[in-house]
Automatic annotation (TrEMBL):
GO biological process: phosphorelay signal transduction system; regulation of DNA-templated transcription
DNA bind region: 2-104
This protein's record includes keyword Transmembrane helix: yes
Cross-referenced InterPro entries: OmpR/PhoB-type_DNA-bd (IPR001867), Sig_transdc_resp-reg_C-effctor (IPR016032), WH-like_DNA-bd_sf (IPR036388)
Pfam families: Trans_reg_C
UniProt protein name: Membrane protein
Example GO molecular function: DNA binding
Keyword Lipid biosynthesis: no
Length: 152
């Protein structure tokens, strides 16, 4: 699963299905289909126009032939809303009767692992406490064994 920086201030995570605006800490939770659609658009951003048929085939697979134009229009509308709520306007540009394209003026950068240290997983205090207790018990058991050997 990849992560991308959109518009230099938002992080899109394919894994958590979220777009987070780093400036104002707004997090938008996306549906899996909207996240897949955004991933597809990012993957095909270099193309001048992404055909509607290509989008439906990629997102719905074999069922794409049965998906109406209204379903795709609704999906794109909701994806645009998610992006707008995160602070990214005009990421998707409609090309009438053909498809859509990604706005080339909005930068998209793949995130290299550990680029944002604040997002690394934190160790829970109870895990630290449990580990410490296990080490102490192990140490006490070892000390008791040495005392038993020394007594013989």
């Amino acid at each position: 699963m990849s992560r991308y920086i959109l518009n230099e201030n938002c992080i899109f995570s394919e894994e958590s299905l979220e777009i987070e605006n780093r400036d104002n800490a707004i997090k938008i939770k996306m549906t899996p289909m909207r996240a897949r659609c955004l991933s597809l658009l990012i993957a095909k951003q270099a193309e001048k126009v992404i055909n509607k048929g290509t989008i439906t085939a990629e997102l719905w697979g074999e069922r794409g032939q049965f998906v109406s134009d209204a379903n795709l229009t609704q999906l794109l509308y909701l994806l645009r809303k998610d992006l707008r709520d995160a602070g990214i306007n005009d990421f998707i540009i409609t090309v009438p009767r053909i498809g859509i394209r990604v706005n080339q003026e909005i930068p998209v950068t793949a995130v290299v692992a550990r680029q944002f240290p604040s997002e690394q997983k934190k160790i829970k205090p109870e895990t630290v406490l449990l580990s410490t207790l296990l080490c102490l018990l192990s140490l006490l058991a070892t000390m008791g064994l040495f005392q038993a050997i020394a007594a013989n």
